[in-house]
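Sample intake sheet
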Amino acid sequence: MKKINLLIALFLFMEVSAQYSGESRIGFTGNFHQGSIVNVHDRSNGRYGGTLGVVAEIPIKSADITGGENIFLMPMVEYSMQGENSTVNVAKWGRQKFHNDYVAAQLYLKYFFNPGRNLSEYFVFAGPRVEFLVREKRETSSQYETTHFKFNHDDEINSLGIGVSVGVGTRVIDNLEAFLRFDRGFSKVYPNAINGVTYNRQLSVGVNYYLGGNRYY
């Protein structure tokens, strides 16, 4: 219940922030990605998944005397399907699945290259990421667990993670953007693991769609 209340509070904060300034706007975001958990589960393959969420764009700096904006705050809240699959002795134990879904929040600083130049349609963004585990789906055999627990030590999972998210993108039309993004966790997914920090990571391609046309360039 606390996680749902937090998600609602984050969404309301974004909506209020976007309405506070007449130049701000709110919209929807989604991506397709491949994620994985580092330093655990032999013969693992990243899980393909997606995200769906809300995003806001809040201008904070004008580029020149014409008033064109090129630096923004970009808060984002999304539901993200993450985790990985493993193929240790599939013939004997079957495929192992470690699927973890999160509600994640990022606060990006977004920089458009100066308006009026050839690169003005392109932008970069970066910021901190916080993720809250809302669903864990683990499918393994008892024989696999007995044999591999001594390597994985993955009997406990953290419900909270922190990391960083960075990316590049381009404006397709006034209210549609496409981007390439990389997320890298810093906190342990499995706190009892002994083979290093078991952090989340994922590479994604996605879009942001804003309600209303472009008013900043």
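Comment: The helical segments are 2-20, 90-93, 142-152. Residues 15-21 have pLDDT under 50 and may be disordered.
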